[in-house]
Structures are given as C-alpha cells and as structure tokens.
C-alpha cells in the first residue's frame, strides 16, 4: 500500500498554486485563469446530464411562475425558474425552489386514500372509483338540497349545501369553466378561489 506523504512545504506550494487568491494578488484577472482551480476544473454542471427538459408552472400560489424541469432517464434531477417567463424571469421564491423536494419526496402520497364513514383506517382505492364517488355524492347532495323558489315565490335555482374552493394555480379559463359549470349547471352559490398573494 502506497501512502501519499507530501511535505508541508509541498502542500503549501500546491495550495498557493491552486488557490485563486494568491494568483489574483500577483495580478492575474479574477475573471480568467485565476478563478480556476484543479477542483473547479473537474466540476461539471449538474444539468449537463439531463436528457429531457420540460416546462411547468409552480404549484404554490397564484403568481404562476414558469419552471424548467430537468430529467435523466425518466427521473427528475432539477427544477429551476424559466428565464423566458415574463412573470418570474427565471427566479423562484423559496417555495417554488423547493418544488423538486415536493415531487421527489419519498413520503409523498401517490395513491388515492379513502376512509369510509365511521372508519378508523385509510385504504387505497382506484382513482376512477374516487372520482365516481365524488361525482355521485355531489349530485346526490345537490338533488336533495336544490331549491327552485323561495317561500315568497322568488326563483333562485340553487343549493347551499355544496361549495367549491379553487386552487391557486387555476388559470382564468379554468376558473371561468368552474364558475359556469358549478353555478349554472349545479346551482352552487359558494364558489371561491384561495389565490391570495
């Protein structure tokens, strides 16, 4: 087994040769070779390995910051702001910058969980079953509580038993459709959006 035993003098000379500050003090430009070191020469951009780049919108608030998603072999490796966006111009707030953790967290729920009435345990159910159940219960509640006219004869055609709270990342077109379907189609009165920035 060979042990690399450099003398303190050799280590100091190597350090002074490799460290940028002494070279800058000797007059080398901090923008050129003086800024490089043997360690920095070996560094590679982490995004260089990406084989696919996609775009998305940050899921956290109503600002709608654009994001770039970098993937390698189908696995997300990085998320950053999209500099082409007129909204965020490549920047992200701390929540948006943490989107990578949101997506890649091993504790993130990826299956639909359902707890039956009076149940104590959560069970996994298919997404189609959950969507059908939500639609069935919404229609059932709406039909049971729908009011066509008030006692004085005023026509209202509404239900006060179902409400909608929209997400912050819904765009204008989605909110328009929600309002039309929920208000006009189902007669819902309580329609709100939690976009508060």
UniProtKB/TrEMBL annotation:
Q: Name one GO molecular function term.
A: oxidoreductase activity
What keywords does the record list, in alphabetical order? 4Fe-4S, Iron, Iron-sulfur, Metal-binding, Oxidoreductase
Specify the superkingdom: Bacteria
Q: Which Pfam families match?
A: Molybdop_Fe4S4
User: Which PROSITE patterns does the entry link to?
Assistant: 4FE4S_MOW_BIS_MGD (PS51669)
Give every 4Fe-4S Mo/W bis-MGD-type domain span: 51-107
Q: Which residues form a coiled coil?
A: none
Query: Which top EC class applies here?
Result: oxidoreductase
> What are the annotated GO cellular component locations?
cell envelope
What cofactor(s) does the depicted protein rely on?
Answer: [4Fe-4S] cluster
* UniProt subcellular location: Cell envelope
Biological process, per Gene Ontology: anaerobic respiration
Main location per the UniProt record: other
Q: What is its EC number?
A: 1.2.1.2
Q: Which residues cross the membrane?
A: none
Q: Which family does it belong to?
A: Belongs to the prokaryotic molybdopterin-containing oxidoreductase family.
Q: Which PANTHER family match?
A: FORMATE DEHYDROGENASE-O MAJOR SUBUNIT, TUNGSTEN-CONTAINING FORMYLMETHANOFURAN DEHYDROGENASE 2 SUBUNIT B
This chain's protein is named: Formate dehydrogenase O alpha subunit protein
